[in-house]
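Annotators were shown the component list below and the corresponding predicted structure, then asked to write short factual statements about the assembly.
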Amino acid sequence: MESLQFDKGNGLVPAIVQDYESGDILMLAYINREAWEKTVATGKAHYWSRSRNTLWLKGETSGHVQIVKEILVDCDEDTVVFKVEQIGGAACHKGFRSCFFRRFDKGVFKVKDEPVFDPGEVYKK
Amino acid sequence: MESLQFDKGNGLVPAIVQDYESGDILMLAYINREAWEKTVATGKAHYWSRSRNTLWLKGETSGHVQIVKEILVDCDEDTVVFKVEQIGGAACHKGFRSCFFRRFDKGVFKVKDEPVFDPGEVYKK
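Structure shown to annotators:
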């Protein structure tokens, strides 16, 4: 199986996550070799959490898993695009469909989207 | 003017570059504070080249500049999306419209797109 240039980025490669139907960009996350192999093997997006230092099945807590429909690879083999079906309709832990819910507008970041869930409800202690 | 969390990534923030009409992802590049400010001031995408260690006006050599139509900011303020009009129709130095011209298919990277220019012609010595 062909693999990616993990060594260039200290073992990590950024994954751009795009809605496979709308083309909206949902988030950017990072994968290591294990996350890459698990994603390919299971068809569900796995990432490496840089803050928690652990492999992470997206949606493990929220149930909002990402079914990977297509994987694109860039010219340098150090970035991928995951085209996904976002279960639950929301990729962002802040309750928005996309992590990119703000627009840079006249010098400030303005919220442009509506939240689709209440993070307080989904991530109960 | 609001800014980004450049300190988290050693002064750099990834910029996902998306065609503002088709929604296709063209490339991933990196910006530092100076590239961010020049992009905002000029409306043309500027990046930080990690290989050449220099500020870089995309299209400086090829003429294939990117007119920035919209900027989106993520929840952590450490990633942006530049929605651009790609002049010349090609973002990739290998002559393809998008750097993501290959698909991961049954374990191998397969070219899925047609090149739109000949890099040998555009990047003459």
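Statements collected:
1. Helices of chain A lie at 33-42, 119-122.
2. Chain A has two helices and eight strands.
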